[in-house]
Amino acid sequence: MNAPERPREKTRFDTIGKPRRRVDGRAKAIGEARFADDLVLPRMLHAKLARSPHPHAIIESIDTTRARAHRGVHLVLTGAEFPVPYGIMPVSQDEYPLARERVRHVGDPVAAVIAVDEQTATEALQLIDVKYRPLPTIASPEEALANPEPRIHDYGERGNIHRNQSYEFGDVEEALAQSDHVFEDLFFYEGNTHLPIEQQASLASVEGDGKLLLATSTQNPHYLHRQLARVLQMPAARIRVIATPNGGGFGGKCDPANHEFVVSKAALMLGRPVKICLTREEVFYQHRGRHPVLMKFRTGVTQDGRLTATHLQTLLDGGAYGSHGPASTFYTGVLTPVTYELPRFKFEACRVFTNKPACGPKRGHGTPQPRFGQEVQLDKIAERLGLDPAEMRLKMVTKPGSLTASWLRIGSTGLAECIRKVVEMSGWKERRGRLGSGRGLGLACSSYMCGAGVSIYWNKLPHSAVQLLLDRSGQVTVYCGATELGQGSDDVLAALTAEALGIDPGNVRCVTGDTGITPIDLGSYSSRVTIMMGNAALQAAGRVRELLAAAAAEALDTLPDRVVFSQDRVFAADDAGKTMSFIEAIAAAEAKFGTLAAVGSYAPPKPPGKYKGAGVGPSPAYSFTACVVETEVDPHTGWVTVPKIWIAHDIGRALNPVLARGQVIGDVYMGLGEALMEEQAFRRLPPKLSSALVHRNPSMLDYKSPTSLDMPEVEVALIEDPDPNCPYGAKEVGQGPLLPVMPALANAIHDAVGVRIDEVPITPEKVLRALEKREKGEAPRVGPESFPPVPYPQPIFVLPPWEGGDGNELKGREGRRAA
Amino acid sequence: MSAVPDRVHLRLVVNGEDTPVSFAPYKTLLEVLREDLGLTGTKHGCELGECGACAVLIDGEPVLSCLELAVQCEGRDIQTIEGLAKGTELHPLQAAFADLGGSQCGYCTSGMVMTAKALLDKESAPSRERIKEALSGNLCRCTGYQQIWESVEEAARVMREAKP
Amino acid sequence: MRMPWFRWHAPKSVAEAAKILAGEGPQAMLIAGGTDLVPNMKRRHQTPQTLVSIRNVSVLKMRANGAGLRLGAARTLTEIVEDADLRAKYRGLWQAAAQVATAQLRNMGTLGGNVCLDTRCTYYNQSHEWRKAIDFCLKKDGETCWVATASKRCVAVSSTDTAPALIALGAKVKLVSAQGERELALADLYKNDGIDYLTRRPDEILTEIALPDAAGWRSSYWKLRRRGSFDFPVLGVAAAVKLAPDGVVEDARIVLGAAASRPFLVEKAGAALRGKRLTDEVIAAAAEATASRAKPMDNTDLDLYWRKEVVDDFVGYALREVRGDDVSATRLRIARQAL
Description:
By secondary structure, chain B is of the alpha+beta class. Helix content of chain B is 34%, strand content 15%. Chain C is of the alpha+beta class. In chain C, a hairpin with a 6-residue loop joins strand 11 and strand 12. In chain C, helix 5 packs antiparallel against helix 9 and helix 10 runs antiparallel to helix 11. At the A-B interface, helix 1 and helix 17 of A face helix 2, helix 3, helix 4 and helix 5 of B.
């Protein structure tokens, strides 16, 4: 495989770095972008799902007789039609399209009606008779730990523990014992959900050749494709999945979803197109959002504010299914050492099942929770040691090219520059502590991956592939399985291809997210698309350019490596008078080599860690962010307002600054929503009267997403330090900038009124409670008070690079003794 | 009691065109636009009046088509996103949203643009605060609104300059 | 999410509408803007067989100046907000109307509709399927009030913004039916019962809202909610004060919204103000008297104890605004907009 084109190879850009209309901008602005629910086919039928009203119950019987007899109903499906389970991760194949024996949360689908229209299907749902035998409700992680029976699933670690793991990199207790200070803090991060404005929709049909076509709002058509083949027991080659443009994803459309299997099966059974569109309430049941996480941080520091070790324990409320849970569990720990030099690190993480909709990946996947704890704890450390929180952080940022205690390779890092930038923009040094009563500034930092180093299913294959096709009409078509969520993946693909070929991005046609046509890309998750798809695209473009250059060199009477591509033309580098149009170059190359096409692909570098579990956390590069939040707190009511936010993001290189800035502000928006008001919360009715456990706020009115009146102005700085592993140096921007917002707000509130809210969301009621505690002479803090006993396993023990380790775990007695 | 009819027939004025349409009488304007007239540019995010994605203009004012009964709309002037461009020439709002990041996933865009159009039809130079207020009934999960405000300001500028 | 089937009438006069209501009985419901009824019908809270639209009844859009101001019930909330004369004279009502829901919903929703808004509760404003999962509740299809399981009365919360402001201003309403018409104080339109929350009979049409002369009165409305738009109030404080030229309070009314199943006048608060100047101490006394009457329940957004704790702050904001203090910074923080 060719090395990706290095940024140093190109110093002047035609397209990259210039603000541009995104390639899909026009279609979206005129209402022509076709989302899944916009699709219509002749003879199309409509599906609705019957869902469980019980949080936990055995299905004793389902009688669909009356529903099937209802006028206009074509088909009624139950779990009997779906014997094969699925799940996004190979180790968690625990879902069925329609529940077979048991329902595990209110909203779990049990049957489906396919009818002539939605109204008829909805009417028929009421005619399905399901007999349930309720089981005890498990509503919280504490209940899950205390009640190994009934088990929500018959797999997992034991009882209702889904995943349980422990890692130790160097002797942490020893380091803590030798520290000048040890800080112990508990934090809680409430769950929340993605809330894309688009409700998921899918349209399944049988194409003329008898193959299944599913057009659906998904972020990961490739993984869905594999799961469809498995569940429908059909060869994958007879299934085509088209990811329609997503009306927002944020991680919520990563998992294969019940309704996608249901409409596929129904279309195959009926030979007619079948569509479904979830209601907003159903989107809340599909969920897969942010895990509620309880955290305990024990961190040792030296007197001058350098970290010696951190021991992190997390407890995740996973909800009713595995989803991405095994990865989420890892992510509550693994990225902790990436931002600051941390000589030793231990993390223990446990995910339990509860009778609520399954949690999964949401923007930042597993990382915002510990980042909140870590960054608030650092603020407490700085306060105790009398250090400036920005200066303290600056002194210990990780170094470029270094390894963490856990063997993650840090590539480029602009974190120090990010900190300096937000300090400057916000007037941190002059304004902090001088804003007057009730006003404050808070700072926090973060880092995120540019793509997961390992695929969700184990393989040695490329993570992304691109095919490029040129013809004498001048048309350049680029094919890739990556999916557009709004983040601008199509624009990245067009921009990189255009830059590499010296043509206008408007002349590049992107064909994406179609498993029937496009080469495989693993999907739009883990901030991987720009880096992985981008490197694959540059490789393909590089290969085509070689052919073009060879043909053009002959025509221009120069050497192939002296051919320059720019502004839709081809030039001889030493004589600008020797030139031809790009179309002429194509014709010349087509005449010389035949039809012009090339493929490119990309797989991330092998991670340095070799221990079991070392596959989670490595990434080709890491992005870094620093953020300052200004806040005003009313001391009488605890009411919190945020007038301004400054954020600096180390993006490597901004391919299209308009989109990059938009991603950063969008991240800040979502982070601020989580920090202040968003909650996926549940109501447990009095257990003596009812076993009910229901979503508190499954609507866009009651789930509080900030409006344009609630959003402060955001000042963005993009720090550009090109990363050698990334296309033209471009790192991720879709997720990382969300992470520092919540802790920066918490730290700002402390600066404003001197109270600590160690819990997200930070509601006025919590702030007022903390203020009242201070009045009473109690510790001015609101947050979790205790951490339940969790039976974490013996840690896998790995020596850090600087303690003589080789990246492997210490086995057997040696490892236990070291631990 | 008279029976409920299966379908009703009436004429809607959509984007300036007199449009006869037949539909089930329980349908909202949103459902008739999308399902019976094929105008899928108008989106839906909640169907309960809680997000603004389905905003269209009726008699020049933005309303939520998910709560508007189609039977109530006979003879009223309905404008949707499809009617905004002049041929292939984008409305300044559409161009600004496409150029300046006002649209990311694009799903809230139709409702956002139509609401902004009603504002700019009345006020040629609204302040940032005024824009924030006018658009506060349209949720966007992607942009954090800032590039939307900037897009509306840019469109207002372009429209002012286009006026003699 | 679809509407159920219904039959449709669009009468052109109040008399015609009243006749249809009388003929159809309680299975018929009035619809004006539809912003409350349509979501409720989609969630099957109400499933009237007949809808009687009053949009084409032009007299219901009327506006008449006299000694006071008479407003047709079908005037939209936007028409209220854009009424410069009303804004100047009845500022509390204007502030309340300007904070209802969102701009689009104010374009659709009417003043009469907001006054008659169905009471709300987190156990009620959910889909039929959700409510099945809690075996329904007292307000609709069930037997238990899940907010207060011992309660025999539904405690769903009155969530109208305009009614507290209107009551503070001394508004009256006119109800018309096939049998005749009656006028009553708006305060008497309400009952403290989450189910049977209006004294209006199903065959009656609320046709107009009449405000007395505003001379000498100053008013203010403060709304507590999580966001700057969309959200219903979780607390509404309306204050109207008549000041003598020397600054002594001649008359005063403080009305609480979203604190019970009806908006209600806090007599003690008015009494604490009458005959006194609006000093900080007097304001504090009125605020405390008001706060003692607020008994929020755990059936809407935000923590109920906190909601009770901030009642006195909100009364203070309203009275300081009436006094003439510059409260714009506080207003901007709470309402997220200048009002």
